[in-house]
Amino acid sequence: MSSNSFPYNEQSGGGEATELGQEATSTISPSGAFGLFSSDLKKNEDLKQMLESNKDSAKLDAMKRIVGMIAKGKNASELFPAVVKNVASKNIEIKKLVYVYLVRYAEEQQDLALLSISTFQRALKDPNQLIRASALRVLSSIRVPIIVPIMMLAIKEASADLSPYVRKNAAHAIQKLYSLDPEQKEMLIEVIEKLLKDKSTLVAGSVVMAFEEVCPDRIDLIHKNYRKLCNLLVDVEEWGQVVIIHMLTRYARTQFVSPWKEGDELEDNGKNFYESDDDQKEKTDKRKKPYTMDPDHRLLIRNTKPLLQSRNAAVVMAVAQLYWHISPKSEAGIISKSLVRLLRSNREVQYIVLQNIATMSIQRKGMFEPYLKSFYVRSTDPTMIKTLKLEILTNLANEANISTLLREFQTYVKSQDKQFAAATIQTIGRCATNILEVTDTCLNGLVCLLSNRDEIVVAESVVVIKKLLQMQPAQHGEIIKHMAKLLDSITVPVARASILWLIGENCERVPKIAPDVLRKMAKSFTSEDDLVKLQILNLGAKLYLTNSKQTKLLTQYILNLGKYDQNYDIRDRTRFIRQLIVPNEKSGALSKYAKKIFLAQKPAPLLESPFKDRDHFQLGTLSHTLNIKATGYLELSNWPEVAPDPSVRNVEVIELAKEWTPAGKAKQENSAKKFYSESEEEEDSSDSSSDSESESGSESGEQGESGEEGDSNEDSSEDSSSEQDSESGRGSGLENKRTAKRNSKEKEKKTKQDRTPLTKDVSLLDLDDFNPVSTPVALPTPALSPSLMADLEGLNLSTSSSVISVSTPAFVPTKTHVLLHRMSGKGLAAHYFFPRQPCIFGDKMVSIQITLNNTTDRKIENIHIGEKKLPIGMKMHVFNPIDSLEPEGSITVSMGIDFCDSTQTASFQLCTKDDCFSVNIQPPVGELLLPVAMSEKDFKKEQGVLTGMNETSAVIIAAPQNFTPSVIFQKVVNVANVGAVPSGQDNIHRFAAKTVHSGSLMLVTVELKEGSTAQLIINTEKTVIGSVLLRELKPVLSQG
């Protein structure tokens, strides 16, 4: 291996080495000229030798150090050749770290990465999902056009992967491939369409991000997935939520009508409907039709509301902008409290939130008025935050709170932050403009500020006063005189120019002061700022036209000075004014109108919020923050006049649900058939995430579901076994079940009669007799129904059958296992679980229920069990063939397997009309048992017999709170189907069961010791099963 490393060493050693920050024990003396560089090379050599070592521990240590360097921002690119050779390592930990490194540097070292591309392709088939995902990330990071077909193929395969994490990375790779080769857009859209149908919350956010990057205009891809995305939104990771909410906001603006005139339209419609003439009635009804919100529109608003409590500021901001843009105005107020809560975050978050609040507060002041004090400025706020808070306070100002705000502003003016003080003065000016009742008060306050020591405050006051005086100049001659005196002390050019402009505009009202001001300005003309010089020229021209006797010579003197000024704007203005106001032979017709031109009535300036023109950008976007359209910004469309067809969002499962509803009402005709055929499909579909779309289909549908849940809750007082049914929504089935309980004898006769026509559902008919067995109780009691006793008569119990009886299993959450994934089954998905019921097909068989789902858009026919590959002695009772399964439909069937008291796998083929799929079922050891009830005396007697080789034990260490009776009971019954045995000692907990096949006893004892230890003892003839059960119980009891 060392010989292979020479070329890499020469390549990396030829240039200047980069310090990697690793403390290496160098033996090279630093006295040489290149001592430092030699030391750096030594550090690299150390890592390279570790990477080329035969020991995995050395390689792993080297990779950890390298990844640590990357995390600290160090450059580790020159180690790429040594690292990439380990991409084929068999050690999974090394391989993970190698891929972390490659994702970081594959784009920089494309040539070297291409050499290992075959390894990356092989890794796409790796059993470990992290490796498959990492290989895809590295492959998409090699930005070379020549491998685009390979990337395309890898993305297609990854999009159908069983792991949602790999599918998530496939969605990320779509964006990278699109930026590399936009010509692949159509093929990528097909993959996006496929991934949009994915029901995993891990994938949803990433695929919507890919949709936004590649084809944001293809709204048709969202129709069928709209309700699913709305219902999955709460469970998606935070940054996925942000992307989905922004996309759904755009979608809602194209698919629903505006909810913003709801109140007016309802009132107007009522009046016009009754008062209009007959010939105008139809026209009026069309124009004033009452607004009814689309159920899908309401679904989006309702499902995003909980996210206002998110800890992620971006999510809260996304929900706020959604409510602002698409919800009725009466409901948008709930976002204000959440946005104010974000003001406690860091200054960057505050800045963005305040910008959006500033935009909102212009149009809807009432939303934020209750939180007025939240926008008061704090001394620790940075200037950018202070300015935004001032903006919001100005927008919220009204007659009721203006006195409070003005007192607050007086404090702000005294701030040491001069920029903030100047902004406050501008704010006072805007308040004076907007609220006429306080205009005089504000003006007097600003005049007082003219005597302030701070020049910036005085200058800003002058500018604001100038704007206010334009509104009513005739009433404020004294203020103009006072400002004229300030010319001797104010040096800020903008303030001096403002005073000169005011005096020029009002020169006829101050005839004695204006000429004197012009005389002073003529003296200092050459030293003034260009802005002031222009206003001096204007003042001279106005006085020449109104008071030429006193100012004629002064004006000519100023014009002569301006004629030779260095600034060409001033020279041009001087020549223009001379030709206009001083008549001569060359003067044109404009000279006659010089007075009207210079002294025309000018409109008062309109003081507006700088955020007024930002509302056309979507809130929370970069474009809104910058007030300019950024690259990639997608504009919100206007509301449509007429809503597009809402049926495009319907999926097949909703249509099926609508067909089932009338069938449930007609239960008197064929109640047994509906209960045993359709309710199973309904039960399974309720577990899938796609069925959540049907919940939101209409308001009536929700009421129907709540009604069914109410029925099931009432029934739970009679028989709590209906809890499982209430979860799956069996409405009509529950009524049949209550009837069956009240007439058990008639029911038994009926089920025997119905078995012949309903051969496909034999197992479900018989299982209904066992409902009392599944009663969830805290501590099981030996209660059996008569029908179950009849079925258990032939069971072979152990020699102690006189003291042992099968008891009711304790209620535990159902654990579902995947039998056939929908990807592997070409749309047919199968899951199974152990109901912990005695099997009706044989007293030695374990009962198994299988739920079959058709996730395709076509009918699947002839579903049956094909070839069976069972170990010697194992037997299987299969379910009857299913003729057909409708699209998006599901059905639950029962089967029994005799596992011969072993955990061996039962392998068989699940077949359809066209395909056969190999599947297998491996039972957990705890499902090979049936709970039994016995007394403590009988337990000790049997335990005394099963000692020596028949006893296994282990010591458990756990926290004391994990050794309470209820916790121990729940943990044990979750693992194994056992029954609790009464115990006279608080520190000893006993459980008993028997194996399904042979009836051998399984006795479990948990004896609590001093401190935080306990001893777990298992006594059984089946030592193999006993040891396996011990291994499964020990970690469960130990953990918290």
From TrEMBL:
List, alphabetically, the GO terms of the cellular component aspect: AP-3 adaptor complex; clathrin adaptor complex; clathrin-coated vesicle membrane; Golgi apparatus
Quote the SMART domains the UniProt record gives. AP3B1_C, B2-adapt-app_C
- Membrane topology label: Peripheral membrane protein
Q: Where is the composition biased (Acidic residues)?
A: 678-696, 705-726
Biased composition annotated in UniProt, kind: Polar residues: 1-11
Q: Where in the cell is it found?
A: Cytoplasmic vesicle, Clathrin-coated vesicle membrane; Golgi apparatus
The UniProt function text for this chain reads: Subunit of non-clathrin- and clathrin-associated adaptor protein complex 3 (AP-3) that plays a role in protein sorting in the late-Golgi/trans-Golgi network (TGN) and/or endosomes. The AP complexes mediate both the recruitment of clathrin to membranes and the recognition of sorting signals within the cytosolic tails of transmembrane cargo molecules. AP-3 appears to be involved in the sorting of a subset of transmembrane proteins targeted to lysosomes and lysosome-related organelles.
Q: What is this protein called?
A: AP-3 complex subunit beta
Provide the gene name from the record.
AP3B1
